[in-house]
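cache lookup: miss for this entity combination. No prior model stored, computing from scratch. Input as submitted by user K.M.:
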Amino acid sequence: MTMRVMTQIKHETNDNAPIKVDVKNLEVYYGKFRALAGINLAVREKQITAIIGPSGCGKSTLLRSFNRMNDLTPHSRVNGEVILDEQNVYAPGVDVVDIRRRVGMVFQRPNPFPKSIYDNVAYGPRLYGIRRRADLDEIIERSLKAAALWDEVKDKLGQSGMSLSGGQQQRLCIARALAVEPEVILMDEPASALDPISTLRIEDLMHDLTKEYTIIIVTHNMQQAARVSDFTAMMMIDEQRAGQMVEYDRTTTIFTHPKNKQTEDYVTGRFG
Amino acid sequence: MSNISFHQRTRRKAVNVIMLSLTGIATILVVAPLLWILGYVMREGLQAINLRFFTDLPTPVGVPGGGILNALVGSLMTVGLGVLIAAPLGMLAGFYAATHPDAPLGVLLRFGTDVLSGVPSIVMGIFAYTLIVLPQKHFSAFSGGVVLAFIMLPIIIRTTEEMLRLVPGSLREASLALGAAEWKTSFSVMLPAALSGVITGILLAVARAAGEAAPLLFTAFGNPFMNVDFRQPVATLPHMIFIYAISPYADWHAKAWATALVLIALILLLNIAARVWIQVRARRLKG
């Protein structure tokens, strides 16, 4: 717990941080169904932005728009812009691979590849042509250290990633994402499948990561959003069942003085 | 609980006993003939089996001794060639079917696979005869291998497709989210995850093909002599069983049983080896 206090002192919310990702009038359609309606969201650099809201309000759809994972869903269509450092990721001619290298992702359930711990982390760097053993060794050590997993696995890098515990697996997946040196990390309920201790470790880790990375996290857990994030975006569905942004502010404001009645009801646990 | 009468409870228990007995009887009815066949083949086959049976060539009627070396080699050649053709082709097609289930070509492939697996193997034999044997003007181990490949293909395509679909979608997403291309994801992540199942499918296909006699009648044709040339006819184990079994000689009947025993044992060994390998691999992955 001491480590937790220390990290919280180190990381402070910065209202004036430059904007890293700017979502402008984003609409996502699945076939004829409009899943997201006119989303606007300015994500600040090296801050943690939480996206909260009831089930089915489009949180994950929004998250998956940042690295174009929605492209994988058949019949999906996107209007509007997601601007990553002045580049619209949905502009024609943009290389999806380049976007995904810059915007990493951690999933709800730990999903290590059925490979060794080493090969799991080396997977991304190898994709981008890094072959020399010494270079890979260095990347793997750095990534595992950044994911706070190195001390636990440094003597068994050849073992299967699936032999680790759930919390370790999730940190391995974070290390795997860090290995390609992304700028933004998307986390889709990264602790929902983990026990409380492992959850705490992931949350501590997120604070450490803000030194270098911009983090966007989707979470169902109000306390988690309040604990870890600097900014919070509250989403709801409108009458046509499309997800929309209700309120976006500093996390402390959202949880203490929300301007919107729906937000207040939600964060105080009156529904959702 | 008090509103359930004694009568109802007795009835429930009785139905339970009856249903359990029925499933038990059905199980025995299924297992019994299997054991019976195995036991019978063993009893009959072991009488004619000795070491020379594996190392000698067949002898003419009346000459004592003789073995099935030529058929062992011939089966190895035809099944080996078949799997060399069918495994890569079937796995790649299975990949396509799994990754493009709704594409017109994927639908066509699935339909074609279903039809292909329903074509009687003797029809496959005639087909291969017309396609390969007639133009080449002679029977050959090569044509036998090709026809066995056709028999293996649907099994390999189907199992590859199904095993790939069982791989959690989150693994595929994790790879794609790292910027990997679809094909890279398929080969570096999906295939290793599905490998045990895919290998099992290939072995099932091999076992099925190794037992086929009908399509080899017009292709590998059979050969009482030793041959290792793919352009020439070869003997195969199932075909050998056929020839020995329809002969009027008691000595050859015994050899038919012995050959059958060898064939069954080989298939069984193949299955056991595959299972052991898969378990070792699974244990290594779990750590």
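stored under new cache key. The CA atoms of residues 233 and 248 of chain A lie 4 Å apart.
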